[in-house]
Amino acid sequence: MQTAAAxxxxxxRIYLEALESVRGERLVASLGVPHGDHWSIRHRGEAIDWxxxxxxxxxxxxxxxxxxxxxxxxxxxxxxxxxxxxxIVKHGHDERLTRIRQLQAGHPIPDSxxxxxxxxxxxxxxxxTERDSVIVLLTGGASALMVAPxxxxxxxxxxxxxxxxLRSGASIEEINAVRKRLxxxxxxxxxxxxxxxxxxxxxxxxxxxxxxxxxxxGPTIPAGEGQEDTLAILxxxxxxxxxxxxxxxxxxxxxxxxxxxxxxxxxxxxxxxxTLVEAVQGIAAREGLAVREVDTAMAGNTHDAALAMxxxxxxxxxxxxxxxxxxxxxxxxxxxxxxxxxxxxxxALIAALALAGEGNAALLSAGTDGTDGPTDAAGAFADGALxxxxxxxxxxxxxxxxxxxxxRLFEATGDLFRTGPTGTNVMDLVLGLAV
Length: 435
Known about the structure:
This is Hydroxypyruvate reductase. It contains 16 helices and 14 strands. The chain has helices spanning 4-20, 24-29, 67-78, 112-124, 142-145, 155-168, 172-181, 189-194, 230-236, 245-252, 273-286, 302-314, 343-354, 386-392, 397-402, 406-413, and strands spanning 38-43, 46-51, 58-63, 84-90, 101-105, 133-138, 198-204, 265-271, 290-298, 323-329, 361-367, 379-383, 416-417, 428-434. A 6-stranded parallel sheet has the order 5-4-3-6-7-8, sandwiched between helices. Strands 9-10-14-11-12-13 form a 6-stranded mixed sheet, with helices on both faces. A two-stranded antiparallel sheet has the order 1-2.
């Protein structure tokens, strides 16, 4: 029988190795090397021949928690072909870059640094011509980092509605639908700023539905017709009368018409949670582990998802063990307490309570960007002995759960999982081990 420490070490090793496969530099390096005046990009059956004309400029812009890693890969690949660049990253998620300027801003609540950084990024693409090309890098986090409120809405008002939506349990698609309507650069608005230059958008997806128009709220993806009524989103979560009147007025306006494509437009999705799960399967096979996919399009209530994973772990027949169980995606957590934590830590806490007394199962739930909620942890480990560790620390897990205080519980029991910034962001990954 595998010890608890050995099971935890195996989960950690699989998790970190899988993350390496979807780091920005690695993804860019896999696209192919430029030759002469063009870059023949090949990626999972897609082919794009992108011009690098000597007479034109190549400018790199973008935003997101993992965009520094993509920019680092581009600097290695394109070198002095890059004429200028400016990206926006979350505080502490910067990389060592030499040609592309890197500005830091607040996440998940937009701040004044995001406003200033976005203005600088837009200045970088001023006065471009049809001979020029812009490579736009987008990863999860871009919606908060790229900040340019529409006329009539202040930064403070936009920050307030963002915070309300995050606490309400709204999905990332719902939050980003509202963000699009409150921004001058999202929902295709960035194309207006770029003008006649050609635009190549490289993305890492953190959106459960896979809708590319929701990644970073789609700054280079023109908003289409038939979008959901954003006021209805606020109403659904009981927020319509809580937000400032300016927000309601902005959301009630007609959708800005899609900009006319002046230059060539290409979009390439580099990685998503399916890419990560594929890597996990390969690692598990090498480790001699059978794999069961519990939910690789994980969404909805965090507690429901955690209970389903715990039940699946308990239900693995003895003859099928050891087995690795996998879930990936992004759940929604409604925060009502005054504690500290994130959806992955609360997932782990719910699972641990459901696994109480189970000695042959362990679990790791963590955000692939290295952060979970407003904490310094990516997530947490869980097993059936949490109650014992909590009692030793003088804590009651049920009481901590009621306060949404999973971080302080796991900090006391030694179950937090810290990675620091990972250079990628493909939502959350849950690994369960039945031994």
